[in-house]
Amino acid sequence: MTQRVNDFPTWYEATATRGAPRPALREAIKAEICVIGGGLAGLTVALELARLRANVVLLEAKNVAWAASGRNGGFVSNGYAQGIENIQKRVGLEAARGLYALSKRGSEYVRREIAEGDPSLKMGDGWIVALRHRDDGNLQKYRDMMARDYDENFTFLPAEQTREKLNSSRYFESISNPQALHFHPLRYALMLAGKAEASGAIIHENTAALSVQKQGAEWRVRTGDGEVVARHVVHCVSSLDRTIHTVSGRAVLPVATYVAVTEPLKQDAIRTSAAVADTRRAGNYYRLIDGGRILWGGSITTRISEPGRLAEQMKRDMVATFPQLGNPRIDYSWAGLMAYALHKMPLIGRDKGGQWFATAFGGHGMNTTAMAGQLLAAAIAQGDDEYRRFAPYEPAWAGGPFGRLGVQASYWWMQLRDRIDEAGS
Ligand SMILES: Cc1cc2nc3c(=O)[nH]c(=O)nc-3n(C[C@H](O)[C@H](O)[C@H](O)COP(=O)(O)OP(=O)(O)OC[C@H]3O[C@@H](n4cnc5c(N)ncnc54)[C@H](O)[C@@H]3O)c2cc1C
């Protein structure tokens, strides 16, 4: 398992209370369903199954949400890592609408769980996506297309209005998405774990699943010191274990990305409590948190880089965008590992042998893990087949190390195209 990338301390861990670790599994037990992986995908499946009164056990190799789910940017918005225009090209308008509606169901779920469970988890509403070059009309066309085809109401902001909120000459026009929100993802995940347990689910931490074998009509999941025999098994391990379930494991690529958090600042650069991103193919995203700190994210690599070094790069990006920030101290910097399929869509389904999987949420996992959890719980407990909307995005081999090289090369290519776009403005 690739552990190191996720091991650097985060602002989220510093501002959440985990409580005592849950006991590791040290015996042989039976359950209806065994969920493997305690990130947001696994936690949501387990919670929704428990709410449907299923008997569910979740095995987490380390601690709940220690990986991407507890160390991400915290932006929640509709859609997928793949752009809706490309989804539409591949599956047609009607099927794309169905998929987009499912992604909205994921965002609505997060909003509802926060409202009912702990409203203090929400840290702001809205998301501004800003251009770093002059608009050639495409942003307004995109806004119109999203309203017409996907019932999504974005607001277009001319350059002056964008710069009122983001005090930087680097920005031009933007769109604002009032339906998005941003939150504390680790505290959210811990809340889901608590809700799942209160509904009857059992969670074992420090319990890696080592193998899954068919045993009659059931599955036998072996761990270091115990085993679970269950009618269903659900794999939610992202790219952290690509061998426990080879069908989905060989179809994902691990991609690392980075976050830096400044000291609390008195600043006149970011004048909005909304989350912000730029439209570059290889762009940055940021938001104000916790009494004036800036949480700044960006950069992707297929090899894991030292977050301290990447923090310097992110600080350079931050100060190049907002020179008035001076030389802010970086109090936290960390990396996280995502899983991408080559088509950049989640892998959600059931393999020919009968094992379930939910993985490859890429950089858009906050709404899509919530969606996947609901879909798979309804499929397993109630025979619902809506998850089949993802059938056009079946797991396919992602190319092993050659796939990695391709991802890194395409990122450099994207950076180059971004620079060419900006040079014309
Ligand atoms: C820095 C960063 C910023 C991001 N920003 C955003 C954002 O702003 N908005 C957004 O929507 N998405 C964002 N994402 C993406 C999002 O965080 C992920 O898509 C999502 O969290 C994936 O959830 P997951 O449950 O699939 O995987 P993970 O959170 O990686 O969880 C997988 C879990 O499985 C466990 N596991 C693995 N193997 C085993 C095994 N054999 N046995 C038991 N357990 C096992 C691991 O220990 C881990 O806890 C970001 C990601 C990163 C890294």
Protein model, in words:
The protein has a domain of 200 residues: 3-Layer(bba) Sandwich (FAD/NAD(P)-binding domain). Helix content is 34%, strand content 26%. It contains 11 helices and 17 strands. The strands form 2 sheets. Strands 3, 4, 5, 6, 11, 12, 13, 14 and 15 form a 9-stranded mixed sheet that branches. Strands 1, 2, 7, 8, 9, 10, 16 and 17 form an 8-stranded mixed sheet that branches. It is globular, with a radius of gyration of 21 Å. The site of flavin-adenine dinucleotide has 42 residues, from helix 2, strand 11, strand 15 and helix 10.
Quickly give the CATH architecture of the domain at 4-71 and 186-253 and 342-405: 3-Layer(bba) Sandwich
Q: Output the CATH homologous superfamily of the domain at 4-71 and 186-253 and 342-405.
A: FAD/NAD(P)-binding domain
Number of helices: 11
In the predicted model, the low-confidence regions spanning at least 5 consecutive residues are none
Query: What is the level 1 CATH name of the domain at 4-71 and 186-253 and 342-405?
Result: Alpha Beta
Provide the β-strand percentage band.
25-35%
How much helicity do the residues have? 25-40%
User: Judging from the principal axes of the Cα atoms, what is the shape?
Assistant: globular
- Gap between N and C termini, in Å? 45 Å
Average residue pLDDT: 91
Order of helices and strands: HEHEEHHEHEHEHEEEEHEEEEHEEEHH
| Each distinct ligand | flavin-adenine dinucleotide
* Biggest sheet descriptor: 9 strands, mixed
How many E-type strands?
17
CATH fold type of the domain at 4-71 and 186-253 and 342-405: FAD/NAD(P)-binding domain
Structural class: alpha/beta
Which radius of gyration do the C-alpha atoms yield? 21 Å
